[in-house]
Amino acid sequence: MSKLLTDAPKGSPKSLSGLLPFLKPYRRRIALALLFLLLAAGATLAFPLALRELIDSGLTAGGSDALAGHFGQLFAVAVALGLFSAGRFYLVSWLGERVTADLRSAVYSHVLHQSPEFFEVTPSGEVLSRLTTDTTLVQTVVGSSLSMGLRNAVMGLGALLMLVWTNPWVMVQVLGVLVLVVVPTVHFGRRVRKLSRASQDRVADSSAIAAEVLTAMPVVQSYTAEPREAERFTRATDQAFETAVRRTRARSVLVAFIIIATSAALLWGLYQGAQSVARGDISAGHLGQTVLYVIILAGAFAVLGEVYGDLLRAAGATERLMELLGNQSPIAAPSHPRSPDLPAAGSAVRFEAVDFCYPSRPTQAALRSFDLAIEPGQTVALVGPSGAGKSTVLSLLLRFYDPQSGAIVLDGCPIDQMSLHSLRQRIAVVPQEPVIFSASALDNIRYGKPQASADEVRAAARAAYADEFIDRLPEGYDTFLGERGVRLSGGQRQRIAIARALLKNPPLMLLDEATSALDAESERAVQAALETAMRGRTTLVIAHRLATVQRADRIIVLDQGRLIEQGTHAELIARGGMYARLAALQFNA
Known about the structure:
- The protein has two domains: 2-326, ABC transporter type 1, transmembrane domain (ABC transporter transmembrane region fold, Up-down Bundle), CATH 1.20.1560.10; 349-588, 3-Layer(aba) Sandwich (Rossmann fold).
- The protein has 19 helices and ten strands.
- It has helices at residues 2-7, 20-23, 27-61, 64-112, 116-121, 124-166, 168-214, 217-222, 226-279, 284-326, 390-397, 420-425, 441-445, 454-463, 467-471, 490-504, 520-534, 569-575, 578-588; strands at residues 349-357, 365-374, 379-383, 405-410, 413-414, 427-430, 508-512, 538-542, 554-559, 562-567.
- The strands form two sheets. The protein has a six-stranded mixed β-sheet with strand order 6-7-8-3-9-10, with helices on both faces. It has a four-stranded antiparallel β-sheet with strand order 2-1-4-5, with helices on one face.
- A hairpin with a 2-residue loop joins strand 9 and strand 10.
């Protein structure tokens, strides 16, 4: 994919070659559509010949039978043209819809497999713009413009050949003029290409702003920033509008130039044909045939000018889509992945001399010479000030990133030798900010184990103390929770996330402030449920509230990416280090 994009100039129609892998599965339909296209073009080119016969033979013969026969021929040509055009229209429209759906699915699936590094630099609104606006432009070309362009190219070439055959000397002059038309057209088209790409980029900018603001509406409204955000979006849309106007103006000039210059050349040829009739060199039917071929040729050139503009816009859109498809995640899957057996009593985890910097902060170490060994079934808490590296440990364990040096081993296997699916199937995560999907409570809990029965879901909900409030919802477990769970409180969303992790029942559990959004009563209940669920399972817990980790088997204290202390709660208090200072601050408060 990326090679196709690299070989083509920026914004060039050659960028459309990136669509070839999506067109290839439908070769038979494309061939049938081309056949209908050629037949429709042939029927159109046959119409002037039938008209010539009508004028030269039907009208001069004077017989009504002969006249009816010639009109019958014209009608037969019209019927053939209608049927062939309908077949072509259906096939290319189907092809446009199908290829667009495949392309949209491929881009979305590819984006889902990108690492967090990709989303650090690519706004979600930008991705949504490419999935919607850009794929719609591709659909217009594949399902309409490309077919129209090919049809008019065939008709224009056929009309040109017929005119050259019937009026060779005149058409040689016309062709010379057409060459003078094509050269400036190609040169001017480059500006249209650049403006087309710029216009699509500006639309993506406004989409990114809208996506960001709409996901943060409570904050926007609480700070009464609605007018400011509306103005920011208006500025972005105005910039997109101004760029689109420049593109449209340039494209309008291009189309006008093509039509006027082409018409001038063809009218010159028609004038020469009229002179030939006056001299008696050709018949009236011959002139009528020439007139229709001139009209077909002029119309074909006009449509090709329009189609060329569409191709330029679609080339920019295809280029942007191929950029997404060509972006490879730095988290590479092993060529021969290993899949160790699932442990019976929790996973064993080892960090061996791990050094890591986030790609966006390459000079600032998030972990330095980090060593940690966790035995199966242990509960280990990670504590320390903000930015100490606690969440980084979980991100590396999930292989959202790879360390610059060192190794991470899970159940005796380095995690970079396991498939991502096998690795992440062994782990359940309860994040500090729980994610609730626009679905029912049942589907949200079952997200990590889609095949789970309703009874299993209820059991997990009971263990997370979520069953009681779910039963009180209007439709119980089938209640739609709204976008991002807006119908639930923070504590209820957290308990849904905990139930989701418990249902998955993995050998390794990662809890990132899993009870942070709960009130004191709910926290005690859920903490008891989590402690029950942790038995026989390895658990890594991040906690700022030290009261929640006092009974952990081991507490790891991090500061500026380094492991500075470890031990039980009592041991660390007795040592009088950073943990003791943090504990004194919290417990005294």
